[in-house]
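User: Sequence in, structure out. Go.
Assistant: Echoing your sequence, followed by the structure tokens.
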Amino acid sequence: MKGYISKTGVSPTVTEDDSKRYELQRIVERLDDLKGSGTQLVTIYVPPDKMLSDVVAHVRQEHSEAANIKSKQTRTNVQDALSSIQARLKGYKKVPENGMVIFSGAVDAKGDKTEMETIVLENPPQSVESYIYHCDSNFETEPLKEMIRDKSLYGLIVLDRREANVGWLSGKRVDPVASASSLVPGKQRKGGQSAQRFARLRREAIDKFYKEVAEMANEVFVPKKDEIDGVLVGGPSPTKEEFIDGDYLHHELQQKLVDKFDVSYTDESGLYELVDSAQDRLADLEVMKDKKMMANFFDELRGGELAAYGEDNVRQNLQAGAVDKLLLSEDLRRKRASFVCPECGAETEETFEGKVEVSPVDCPECGAETELEDVEDVVDELIELAEQMSTEVAFISTDFEEGEQLKDAFGGVAGILRYNTGI
């Protein structure tokens, strides 16, 4: 859980790469597995613009009001959770850049016992949108799941000859950013202007407005050009066609144009309409990234020499620095545990798939029950090796056939190599 969770209240800044999102997904899975009795599990979402002093005051007030809870056990557990949260908050001078989420409460353990668990998640991949205080028998993880569901970033432009709006589609959230209004005259001539002169002046005004819209979009999008997955343009015909065909946008944004879509509105509501119109196209694009990666792998597997698969083989190639791209199934959940026998001293390793709890195994030499020495998450280990060797890591969805093949036929682990090691 490195990178997000800290039981001391301090954790490193989170980047928005796939490995961190995968890590957040595992954290959410663990939080969903934790249960409590009654309404004694406390969740607090703190947006970045929230004053930390206000959060502390609210927690203190809730602690005081919890004294009125009739059940002694529930009262004690809620107050203990709130006291733990107060202690964690003392470690912060201000709310982190993307906000923070705190989970605390007495969770069910083995038998009839409970254990106090306090987890601090700071700087999630997307900014926390609103302040939430939640008490229940489960931790509230839905806002975090929204962050995991879609990691894309698209620039949005809607325009006609009267107005234009620019914004972001970040995951599933639309953020309007800038707008502009035009001085393009209507189609009816005024006064004694000739039709030809009026048409020329109107064409010049339209061209000037398109340039203004492009400049506005360039200022918003170009600083993040390396993070953008694409640019969507919406509007009536022929406006959107004129804007795209006129090469008004920065050349690097032109290359990222996904498609154009018919929309009825060009104010802020038009940005939402644009996203609705583009849903099918966006869904195809998200899967296409994974499909392209898997196609490269299968090409090497069939006719090249630069494919590796299976956990052990890929690990060896990683250690040799030969893996250019590490492909991991998004559904891969695997732990490797090492055991030692207290009777004969024999050492053994076992792999545990899924969420299965790691437990001692019988010694293969003498049959005595072994003792657990160490547990390592296989994905964490492979990612760490990849980072050491400057290897790109890609998490592949199982929402398409090739992604399922990676998980089922290749053990969820594959690699595209820089060179053939002969391993």
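User: And one key feature?
Assistant: The first strand starts at residue 5 and ends at 6.
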